[in-house]
# Entry
Amino acid sequence: MSKGQPKVLVVGGGIAGDALAVMLGRAGWEVTVAEIAPGLRTGGQTVDLRGDSRDVLVRLGLLEQALDRLVPQRGAAWIDRTGRRLATMPVEAFDGNGYVSKEELLRADLARVLHDAAAGARVTHRFGETAEELTDTPTGVRVRFRTAPPEEFDLVVGADGAHSRVRRLRFGPEESYRRPLGLAHAWFTLTETADTPALDGWFLTHNAPGRRTAEARPGHPGTQEVGLTFAATGLPARQDRAAQFTLLDEVFADMGWRTREFLAAARTAPDFALDTYDQIQVPKWHAGRVVLLGDSAWCASPLSGLGTALALRGAAQLADALESAAVRDHPDRLPGALTAFEESMRPRVRAAQKLFPGRVRQAAPRTERGIRVNAWLIRRLQSGPVQKAATRMAARHGQDPSRPDRRTSHAA
Ligand SMILES: Cc1cc2nc3c(=O)[nH]c(=O)nc-3n(C[C@H](O)[C@H](O)[C@H](O)COP(=O)(O)OP(=O)(O)OC[C@H]3O[C@@H](n4cnc5c(N)ncnc54)[C@H](O)[C@@H]3O)c2cc1C
# Structure
């Protein structure tokens, strides 16, 4: 390990990567972030500021900046093909721990807050860059980059998302770790025109038989964030946009509500993306001086609603483990620190990966009856004798099950 200032390479400048970069940069590490995109990634829907997300942003002194970027939200509503509401869940439901919260911001805005803080912690960002090869040496990991000259680091962190290259380079092919949930999801930003129906702060979901779901939720002023979910385990190649749009046309064409408008808007959206809903399960997150963090290690899938919370908490646990073991002054303690990090995160990850019972079916019901039952359940859970139990269950969502002092996910 380098004498004095240890060097860490973080591959992936997303939520987990930049959060860790802020922490290690402030703790005196020399931090380089290699992000494959040509600039900070935009796109993505809203993420909430409850539980772990809030705790870690408070700790970083970034909560106020995140709160300045909130998207105004009033709640979620499930609608039929004509737009008639079947069920609603306001942001106040379940003591604020419901499906949509008052405190949500776009993923891209949170990424910007973290990126700027990392820059302020003297972190170097290299965009359009990635690791091509990782070779262990007696003193570190030698990294061959796509464009920059090779360089040795004391620690390499793979924070490069669910399709992680670092994971592939160090632990083998994605197929060994990917657990498909049987659904795929397209998402993009729709720019409103004079004819676009206003959302008025409501996140609208239309389910249709055959496991198809179309959603629109509030974004920045003048925009809506659209999601299209459907049953699939495989997809056309990522570069083949034409095949992707043809597939979406086939699945959603007759679905009613605003889906025709969405299919047209998808084609011109600058941030269109399509992927399967998967979980990533890796039995060990570190090998030598390489460690995985965030979705690359444990993606619980967007259906968990906990991807950002786990990414932020994971970054904090890794930074804490390195700090507690005083790895900067005692390089031989790195393996112990990485083991401690894993032990501290596993219970949370296991809990997050256990999706709410029926969550996959509920996201995209198979039949008209399933859709009606879903709407009935949403209404029922918010009233009558089950309401208290549902509120308790919602408060526990995403909390570390091994901790005796489970708090509501509001707690700062
Ligand atoms: C553009 C975008 C939009 C998203 N939208 C949503 C959403 O709407 N809802 C949701 O639940 N989750 C969304 N996610 C996923 C969500 O951000 C993560 O689940 C969560 O925040 C965990 O963060 P992460 O840092 O592990 O992964 P991510 O936030 O996905 O960050 C990974 C980063 O690694 C970069 N990267 C990938 N491959 C390489 C490589 N080979 N070399 C270098 N860098 C690489 C990516 O460009 C990205 O910046 C989105 C992710 C991205 C990148």
